[in-house]
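To whoever is on call:

I kicked off a structure prediction for a single chain this morning and the downstream step that reads the tokens threw a length-mismatch warning. I double-checked the sequence; it's 115 residues and nothing unusual in it as far as I can see. Pasting both halves so you can look.
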Amino acid sequence: MSDDCLFCKIIAGEIPSNKVYSDDDVYAFHDINAAAPQHILIVPKKHLDDITHAGAEDQALLGKLLLRANKIAQDQGLTENGFRYVINTGKDGGQTVSHVHLHILGGRRMQWPPG
């Protein structure tokens, strides 16, 4: 956990969120700035500034993040018509919170290129 990280504060319950899922390793919640009818963020509880800060020791955690995202997408009814995962990295990649997070976007047709 990082004392000044928005997502760490959400995970700790210091900032309220609309929780979708939580276990020992990951936390998922609805994005307050939704870019799609369904927009859920799933974050590891371990603080990593961005995906480039993950190491070999994080392999299982990142695998769990993706598998839990699959289950959340299924539970939210997104698997029939499809959905998108996004992991923004760095300023030019559109990352606005320095904590690894995966966006689950669905409930509408996605465009390509994304932006």
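Update from on-call: the warning came from a stale cache, not from the record. Cleared it. Sanity check on the structure: Residues 6 and 68 are 21 Å apart (CA to CA).
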